[in-house]
Amino acid sequence: MGNPIAHNLLNAGHKLFVHDMDQRATENLLNQGAIWCDFPAKVAEKSAVIFLSLPSDVEVSAVCFEPNGLFSSIQVNTFLIDLTTVSISLIPKLEASEEKYQFHYLTSPVSEGVKNAKLGQLSIFVGGKEEDYIQCLPLYKVIAKEIIYTGSHFSAIAAKLLTNLLWFINAVAIGEALVIGAKSGIDLPTLQKVIINSCGNSWVAEHDIPSIYNGDYDPSFTIQLCCKDLRLISELAANLNVPIEMGALVEQIFRRTSHIYGLNSPELSVVKYLEEITNTRFN
């Protein structure tokens, strides 16, 4: 996700200093003129605005707090825009660091997938001081089509997690619907048309049915990331004392799928599992 976002920032004329655990992952950016930094601290020394796009709060914590991390050299009044979906438990620590080091922290989790990241058409949910959000709005507009200011840092993470809760529930449900439809004798193109042109339509139906039918099951997002986000959703719900029966069941289904196909298997392997146990094939 971070690579196409950085690509779009470069194309918009911004000077970029980049760091990644694997320098090879940045080769296309370096070829475009980005400047490599050996440590996150070097990025912080040179940047007025820092974007983080990482797999989880574990990596965010390491990049920010470890020796040679961002906070060892972050400059006063730097903007830190974190595009990662992090645990709500990390937010107070980041807010405390914002006050200590006098930078501007904006929680900014993204939605709409890698394809839209490449197109600069993400949706972003922004939490933090409104004046900081307004000042960074031109940068957000480079990488996103929808930028929604939610208020607090907590609210931005909550917004992202609730959308992922709906996404994962729909991913499981679409598999069940497709298998039942196929076994009812509805041919696949007609079945897709029925779902998309009905009250059963969803972003998942429009985005994911083609990748189910062609058999790649959307490798741009892994089961491991699904399980991570479902864990964060459960954490959020427990923090708010909200029971989530469907969310808990869906989490079990994704974790079962991870045991069968591996953590690096595509997100829609939950549908592949249904195909296999019912002897149904969509490709």
Q: What's the short story on this structure?
A:
The chain has helices at 2-11, 27-31, 40-46, 57-65, 91-101, 113-119, 130-143, 153-183, 188-196, 203-213, 223-239, 245-261, 269-277; strands at residues 17-18, 35-36, 49-52, 79-82, 104-107, 110-111, 122-127, 144-151.
Description:
The chain has 2 domains: about 1-150, NAD(P)-binding Rossmann-like Domain (Rossmann fold), CATH 3.40.50.720; about 160-275, Orthogonal Bundle (N-(1-d-carboxylethyl)-l-norvaline Dehydrogenase, domain 2), CATH 1.10.1040. It is about 55% helix and about 10% strand. It has helices at about 1-10, 25-30, 40-45, 55-65, 90-100, 115-120, 130-145, 155-185, 190-195, 205-215, 225-240, 245-260, 270-275; strands at about 15-20, 35, 50, 80, 105, 110, 120-125, 145-150. The strands form 3 sheets. The chain has a 3-stranded parallel β-sheet, with helices on both faces. β7, α7 (about 130-145) and β8 form a beta-alpha-beta unit.
Identify the strand order in the major beta sheet: 3-4-5
Tally of distinct domains: 2
CATH architecture of the largest domain: 3-Layer(aba) Sandwich
Structural class: mainly alpha
Helix content: 55-70%
Shape: globular
Strand content: 5-15%
* CATH topology descriptor of the largest domain: Rossmann fold
CATH superfamily of the largest domain: NAD(P)-binding Rossmann-like Domain
Q: Care to count the β-strands?
A: 8
Number of helical regions: 13
Cα separation of the termini: 28 Å
Rg, please?
Answer: 20 Å
Spans where pLDDT lies below 50 across 5 or more residues:
none
What's the rounded overall pLDDT mean?
97
User: What CATH first level of the largest domain would be assigned?
Assistant: Alpha Beta
H and E string? HEHEHEHEHEEHEHEHHHHHH
Q: Can you summarize the main beta sheet?
A: 3 strands, parallel
